[in-house]
């Protein structure tokens, strides 16, 4: 039986601006963030997002979002749940996430 490693997280305070901008520039990641923003914390599993990418690509997108400090994940059994780190990310990059979520 294989166990997957717990995801590594980067705190937004440790994220360079260009890393954050790069993470927020992809349409699939923006869709993930918009869906997370409209959901209760820790209620969305990775497979519950309405994005048209394969599982491996979706895993990559979540890794980029974690690395940019925008998303936090936790495992419960075989499922991985997500939450938007809006407050922490907003402290580091005031207004940036809101602009992306608005779609202006």
TrEMBL record:
Domain HTH arsR-type as annotated: residue spans: 9-104
Record CDD domains: HTH_ARSR
Pfam families per record? HTH_5
Keywords (alphabetical) are: DNA-binding, Transcription, Transcription regulation
tRNA processing in keyword set: no
Note the InterPro entries from the entry.
ArsR-like_HTH (IPR011991), HTH_ArsR_DNA-bd_dom (IPR001845), HTH_MetalResp_TranReg (IPR051081), WH-like_DNA-bd_sf (IPR036388), WH_DNA-bd_sf (IPR036390)
Looking up SMART domains in the UniProt record yields:
HTH_ARSR
Any single GO molecular-function term of the entry would be: DNA binding
Q: Does the keyword Transcription regulation apply?
A: yes
Q: Which PANTHER family match?
A: TRANSCRIPTIONAL REGULATOR, ARSR FAMILY, TRANSCRIPTIONAL REGULATORY PROTEIN
Stated name of the protein: Helix-turn-helix transcriptional regulator
The organism named in the record is Streptomyces beijiangensis
